[in-house]
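Risk register update: the risk of archive-format incompatibility is retired. Evidence:
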Amino acid sequence: MFEYAHIIIPSIILGVFSRLSMLRSDYRQYPSYPQGVFSHITLGIVSASLGAVAVPALAEKEFAAVTFLALAAQQFRDVRSLERQSLDNIEPTELVARGTAYIEDIAKAFEARNYMTMLTGLVVSIVIYFLERRGVSVNLSVLAGFIVGFAVIIYFNKAIRRETVQDIADVRPATITFEGPLLAINGVVIMNIGLKASRKIYQENGIAVEIIPKNENGIATLGNLGQRQAIQHNASILLGIRKDVDEPDFTPIARRDPHTGNVVMAIVTMEPDVECLVQAVKSTIVLESAKRKPLDSRVGRKAAD
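Archived output:
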C-alpha cells in the first residue's frame, strides 16, 4: 500500500482538517478541553484514515478492508450513545438543565461529523486516484485533491450550519409584573412566587423577553418543550443565573401564550442586562428534534391562510 501514499496521506490530512474545522469548544464547554477535544481529534484521525484507504483497498482488490467502513459506522453509532450517556450523567449537576432534546441534538451532531470526516477523506482519495489513472501527473492530482477537499470542507461546514432562534422569531425585551403572587410577563402568567423576598428580587433584578415567531413554522418549533429548555439553559450559561440548588423560584421558565404562540421568559441573572438576554436568546440554536415546518404541507398552508 506504500505506492498509494500520495493518495492516503493528503486524504487523511484533509479529513482531519475537516474535523478540526467543525470542532468547537466555546462557552458551552462541550466537548470539554482538553480531554474531550483530544478524543474527538483522535476519532477524526480514525475516520479520515478509513475514508482515505477505501479507494486504494478497492484498487488492490482488498475487499475485506472495505468492510471496515461498515464497522466504522457501527462504532460512530456507539460514539453517539456514549456522548448521550456522558451528557445524561452530568445533567443533574446543571443549575438549569439542558434537557433531553438538547442532549440528543449534541450526540447526533458528533456522530454526523465523524461521517463527514470520513467522506472528506474518501472524496479526496477518489479525485487523486482517478486523475492519476487518466494520466495526470502525481503533483497535479494531489493539488486537485487538495482543492476539491477544501471545497468539500466548505460545503460541509455550510451544510451543518444551524438555524438560531433569530432566524425563526423576533426577540424583544418584556415587562415583569405581579398579580398578587403571580409573576406575569406582558400579561402572560408564568408562575406563583409565594415568598415576598423572591418577588422583590424579581422586581429589582429580574429581566424578561418575549419571543415572537415569524410564521407558523416558528410557532410550532417554539411550542416544543425541548426548544424552550435549550433557550433557558443558553441564557443562564451566558448571563449567569442567580440561584443555587433548592431555589425553584429563580429557575427560568419559558411559557407559551396559547392565544398567539408567543413565548415569554423571565430570569434573574448575575448580570441583569436585558439587551444581553435578547442576544443570548437569539443565538440559541434551533434543535433538529424540535424543528417543525407545517407550512411545507398543503394542510398547514391552508390552515395558516
